[in-house]
């Protein structure tokens, strides 16, 4: 078969899978890109009580508020994740944090 430069190259189309909105896989159960625990921890740190405090919130207080929904390890993991992602920063010690958006 010879190459024909007059043959339209657009007659062959590569199939592209349709975007399904990311409704499954690793993103399932996420809220705004966060896992549920991360989203709730961040919402507490961005709430009015935390915003008014110069020292931020103590992690122990956070655990009392969310302890019936998430384990201690999940909450500590969410705080660590949010610190590493730049959403929270430590204030007076390793147990007090404040949101970067407040």
Sequence-ordered SSE layout with sheet pairings:
Layout: H1 36-45, H2 48-52, E1 57-58, H3 59-66, H4 72-84, E2 88-90, E3 96-99
Antiparallel strand pairs: 1-3, 2-3
Largest sheet: 3 strands, antiparallel
- What percent of residues are in strands? 5-15%
* Overall 3D form: globular
Strand order of the largest sheet: 1-3-2
Helix run count: 4
Cα-to-Cα separation, first versus last residue: 68 Å
Approximately how much helix is present in the residues? 25-40%
- Quote the average pLDDT: 78
Q: Order of helices and strands, N to C? A: HHEHHEE
Secondary-structure content class? alpha+beta
User: What is the subunit organization of this protein?
Assistant: single chain
The whole-angstrom Rg is: 23 Å
Low-confidence stretches: 14-26
Count of β-strands: 3
